[in-house]
Specification:
One of its GO terms (molecular function) is oxidoreductase activity, acting on the CH-OH group of donors, NAD or NADP as acceptor. This protein is an alpha/beta fold and about 280 residues long. The chain has eleven helices and nine strands. It has a single domain, classed as NAD(P)-binding Rossmann-like Domain (Rossmann fold), CATH 3.40.50. Helix 8 links the parallel strand 5 and strand 6. It is globular. The protein binds NADP nicotinamide-adenine-dinucleotide phosphate (NAP). NADP nicotinamide-adenine-dinucleotide phosphate binds next to helix 4, helix 7 and helix 9.
Length: about 280
């Protein structure tokens, strides 16, 4: 009976025009939608949600029905994003918060200051990060060293330490760190940034081991070249110079990375995707 129904369905499917078949394939009722349901009403805190990968994550998690805590320094951008997402997904609750991850005092006040319905963070996306310049180790300024290490390493540690105790208490949670291919590779002029992402790699792998006997998951996502505001920040607002970085490449997009993060976050509770590397295609 089941077999004959399936065979009728298959015949009907194959007689459809190819455009309809493609549409049905993209809908993927069997697995995709069910796994997205796992993210409904989860509370997701994203650092650096005002641009690039963080902003793309906010859009993808909202589409999956998660409630969001969006943080960054540029709060005007967060407010705009909140307003767009609230119109599109009225059921999704969104809280915005100005937060410089380098500011330990403010990071420590993060959880106590959240409205009660946002306090129990289920998923932390440690995304805030940046690179400054392309100077060799001998030439890089003290200020650039401090900014990269304070943001990419110490900021990630501060936010993790603010959120993890609650996850331990509730015995549930997922920490997703945005590392980089620069967490395992190096290049001339990238010494400090690479050192900071090597540190993210070490922290992620250590956390994974320290939490292996708990239900709390730890994932490190390691992108290659992603076309965001990253290179604009690197070259202090010089868009022309930033654009040249991607010439001759087919770079990844923030959305590509966000989709992967959503995939990792929406696995069943017992599946911990420890790490993933995403590489751009060179054309
Ligand atoms: N783009 C790439 O090629 C690439 C590759 C590998 C890994 N990554 C990593 O991906 C993450 C996101 O970068 P992106 O490419 O999306 O760059 P982006 O477009 O420049 O976005 C960076 C985000 O980080 C935030 N941020 C920077 N400093 C911060 C601070 N002190 N406190 C709080 N937020 C801060 C920025 O927000 P505000 O300025 O508003 O604070 C912004 O929202 C970073 O960790 C980066 O290292 C990027």
């Amino acid at each position: 009976m089941i077999r004959s129904t399936l065979s009728k369905f298959q015949k009907a499917f194959f007689s459809l025009p190819s455009s309809s078949k493609d549409l049905i394939r993209t809908l993927d009722f069997s697995r995709g939608i069910n796994s997205m349901r796992r993210l409904e009403r989860k509370i997701v805190l994203i650092t650096g949600a005002s641009a690039g990968i963080g902003e793309a994550c906010a859009k993808e998690f909202a589409a999956a029905g998660s409630n969001l805590i969006l943080t960054a320094r540029r709060v005007d951008r967060l407010e705009r994003l909140k307003s767009d997402l609230s119109k599109k997904y009225p059921q999704v609750r969104i809280h915005t918060l100005q937060l410089d991850v380098r500011d330990k005092t403010n990071v420590d006040k993060l959880v106590p200051g959240l409205p009660s319905e946002f306090k129990e963070v289920d998923i932390l996306v440690n995304n805030a990060g940046l690179v400054i310049g392309l100077d060799k180790i001998n030439d890089v300024t003290d200020d650039a060293i401090d900014t990269m290490i304070d943001t990419n390493v110490k900021g990630l540690i501060y936010v993790t330490r603010a959120i993890l105790p609650g996850m331990k208490e509730r015995q549930r949670g997922h920490i997703i760190n945005i590392g980089s291919v620069s967490g395992t590779q190096v290049y001339p002029g990238g010494g400090i940034y690479c050192a900071s992402k090597h540190a993210v790699n070490a922290i992620s792998r250590t956390l994974l081991l320290e939490l292996v006997d708990t239900p709390i998951r730890v994932t490190e996502i390691n992108p290659g070249m992603v076309e965001t505001e990253f290179s604009i920040v690197r070259f202090k607002g010089d868009k022309e110079k930033a654009g040249k970085v991607y010439q001759g490449f087919n770079p990844l997009t923030g959305e590509d990375i966000a989709e992967t993060i959503i995939f990792a976050a929406s696995r069943p509770d017992h599946v911990n995707i420890a790490g993933m590397f995403l590489q751009e295609i060179i054309i």
